[in-house]
Amino acid sequence: MSIRSADSVALATHRGAIRRARLGALLRASGDALGVPARASLAVRLTDDEELRSLNARFLGTDAPTDVLAFPAAEAGRVGDLAISVERAVDQDRESGGDGAAELRLLAVHGLLHCLGHDHAEASDAASMTEATRALLAGQPVPDLVPAR
After folding, report:
1. Beta partners for residue 80, in sequence order
2. Alpha-carbon distance 4 to 47, whole Å?
């Protein structure tokens, strides 16, 4: 598993939250719990709203920032790629009094589940994905997913 951080002023101020999130350990444990082969790879890019907006426009045709993008891999031995806006995660977590670490964890698991084929387009899928997220983030509050439309 590869976790890389972009170089940006926004990220430099959030290094503590990134460390506290322990994303490498979380994603390895989550992969184990979900039956992902130990040698399967997942690339994670920690970046800012500007880069997520660019990726969102380029790959999904939506010219707007978002918190996480997941790109499932079509090849054996690869789970996929995630891009997470640390800037947005910190802002979203501040609403509940956090420092960003919990939201980074939530977004990483959410993206991993998308790479593994989970979705939340329908209410039943959203409920299943919420349940899987809660199991992987035991002890951390996880909001109900709203079906994507």
Report:
1. 42, 72
2. 9
- Asked whether the beta carbons of 112 and 104 are under 8 A apart, the reply is no
Q: According to the model, what pLDDT value does residue 64 have?
A: 94
Ligand-binding site membership of 114 (annotated): yes
41-47 and 2-5 beta bridge pairing: parallel
132 in Cβ contact with 116 (< 8 Å) = no
> Is 110 one of the annotated binding-site residues?
yes
Does the annotation place 120 within a ligand binding site?
yes
Q: What is the pLDDT of residues 19-60, one digit of tens each?
A: 999 999 999 999 999 999 988 999 999 999 999 999 999 999
3 state SS for the chain: CEEEECCCHHHHCCHHHHHHHCHHHHHHHHHHHCCCCCCCEEEEEEECHHHHHHHHHHHHCCCCCCCEEEEECCCCCEEEEEEEEHHHHHHHHHCCCCCCHHHHHHHHHHHHHHHCCCCCCCHHHHHHHHHHHHHHCCCCCCCCCCCCC
Over range 75-93, report the average pLDDT. 93
